[in-house]
Specification:
Helix content: 55-70%
Number of domains: 2
Structural class: mainly alpha
Strand content: under 5%
Low-confidence stretches: none
Largest sheet: none
Order of helices and strands: HHHHHHHHHHHHHHHHH
Shape: globular
Number of strands: 0
Number of helices: 17
Mean pLDDT: 91
Radius of gyration: 23 Å
Distance between the termini: 17 Å
Length: 482
């Protein structure tokens, strides 16, 4: 069930009505409703995936209890590694087995040995990377005695499978979400209205920006052999806005929907394309994943406390693992490696914490220096996205060779120039709104809220009209494949 589908447009109001008008007198019944709704939501993809989700939930719930109850350090460690190994084992089988088998075959063929390894014809369960990381953070925190195991299975199961975040995040922490699930919730009109605004902006990002950019990005990348360097540049830029509109749009919808039920999720994006360096970009892009790797991998490895070599090693590990998390393809690993290389000069000269606040915090326009920094960072990001979007490493290098050829100086060619011009205008409109609202949690949070009601609602209706005008076939969100 997609957020941008008609089925979800029926599903959400029904659950909302039952939640606030039928089960509102009992927190237990509200949580049961959320759990049943979440399982139904997930089963709509494939009922077989639901059994894997339930098994993963039971595994972490049971091992968490055993770790909390056990006073023997060895027993705690056994239960901990049982949970971690099974969780990562499932992730490895479904997501990475065929990749490793193919890579091993290619390696042996380089030495003249030809083997035919067994591959698995399996479908990647939607959202497996996200709910696996929910469970892993939970058992790691219990093992490190930061929290105790949750005894109420319903509450824990809602934490893992709460439907707004289930298939593409944000990646939640038990310390943040579980207390909200366990606390009585009262309907707040202002909070719900704020959630609806965020849903509206998320849908605009997805339907108007991402899906329309995808049309051109896919056409160009799928025909890269027949495209000039200038056309390929446009393809990379279209994909850059596609993936941001798609994933941040999903996150906005997820946060907005959760707010309708009185629950606040972790922020996942903070206007990353207005970043002045790569370090700032990664503090603003997929925040829940970046902080997950920081807390559960980077810091345990030693973080930034050791020598320069330790810092360099840990940084490369984080970015390479981040690339690998996104998919079983060398293109993602190279994408992670590129970002690590971008990050190196900042870390070596202790410049990685310079740009903490949003750009032009006290003025509307950025300075010339800030503008140049934004354009440079954006350019580096577009370059890296080429590897992320390409099907193979060979395709990525072929695209780059054409971009850095004389064909870069030719006019880009499109089948429908009017449609391209339209989407460029929409992107500019999108950037203006994002820039204007950049100091807030999301672009529409306070935009026009204190203006004349007629003016404010005219703007909202404009977004709705654009949604209707540019809605095509329901398209899945990119991060569902991760």
């Amino acid at each position: 069930m997609l957020f941008n589908s008609l089925s979800f447009a029926f599903f959400l109001p029904i659950v909302f009505f039952l939640y606030w008008f039928v089960t509102n007198r009992s927190l237990k019944m509200q949580n049961i409703l959320l759990l049943v709704s979440s399982y139904f939501f997930y089963a709509c993809w494939d009922t077989r995936f639901l059994f894997l989700l339930i098994f993963s939930t039971l595994l972490d719930y049971f091992t968490g209890l055993k770790m909390t109850e056990s006073e023997n350090a060895i027993h705690r460690k056994i239960w901990f590694w049982l949970s971690v190994s099974i969780n990562l084992g499932f992730l490895g089988v479904f997501k990475y087995y065929n990749f490793f088998a193919a890579s091993f075959t290619d390696l042996l063929s380089g030495f003249g040995l030809h083997v035919s390894p067994m591959t698995l014809n399996v479908i990647l369960p939607v959202g497996i990377s996200f709910y696996t990381f929910h469970g892993l953070s939970y058992v790691i925190d219990i093992y490190n005695k930061k929290i105790v195991a949750e005894k109420n299975f319903i509450d824990y199961a809602v934490f893992v499978s709460f439907f707004p975040l289930l298939v593409a995040g944000p990646i939640e922490r038990a310390t943040h979400l579980l207390p909200q699930i366990q606390k009585a919730r009262v309907f707040d009109y202002q909070r719900a209205a704020d959630g609806l605004r965020q849903i509206l902006w998320g849908l605009f990002k997805k339907v108007v920006i991402a899906d329309n950019c995808a049309t051109f990005a896919n056409a160009i990348f799928n025909n890269y052999n027949q495209s000039s360097g200038s056309t390929l540049i446009f393809g990379a830029i279209f994909f850059t806005f596609q993936i941001y509109g798609d994933f941040s749009g999903y996150s906005d919808i997820a946060l907005g929907v959760a707010r309708l039920f009185g629950i606040d999720l972790l922020r996942n994006f903070a206007f990353p394309y207005f970043s002045r360096d790569i370090a700032e970009f990664w503090r603003r892009w997929h925040i829940s994943l970046s902080t997950w790797f920081r807390d559960y991998l980077y810091i345990p490895l030693g973080g930034s406390a050791g020598s320069k070599w330790v810092k360099i090693r840990n940084t490369f590990i984080i970015f390479l693992v981040s690339g690998f998390w996104h998919g079983a393809n060398w293109t993602f690993i190279i994408w992670g490696l590129l970002n690590a290389l971008y990050f190196m000069p900042l870390m070596m000269f202790n410049k990685n914490r310079v740009n903490i606040e949003i750009v032009a915090q006290n003025s509307f326009f950025p300075s010339i220096k800030e503008l140049l920094q934004i354009v440079t960072t954006f350019g580096l990001t577009v370059f890296a996205w080429i590897f992320f979007r390409s099907d193979t490493v060979a395709q990525a290098f072929s695209i780059l060779r054409e971009i850095f050829s004389e064909s870069l100086l030719t006019m880009p060619k499109f089948h429908d120039k009017k449609e391209v011009l339209t989407i460029i205008i929409l992107i500019l409109f999108f950037l203006i709104v994002e820039w204007t609202g950049r100091r807030n949690q999301y672009a529409l949070e306070k935009l026009f809220v204190h203006k004349n009601r007629v003016f404010r609602w005219t703007f909202y209706y404009l977004l709705i009209i654009l949604l209707i005008a540019f809605t095509g076939e329901d398209q899945e969100f990119i991060y569902f494949q991760f």
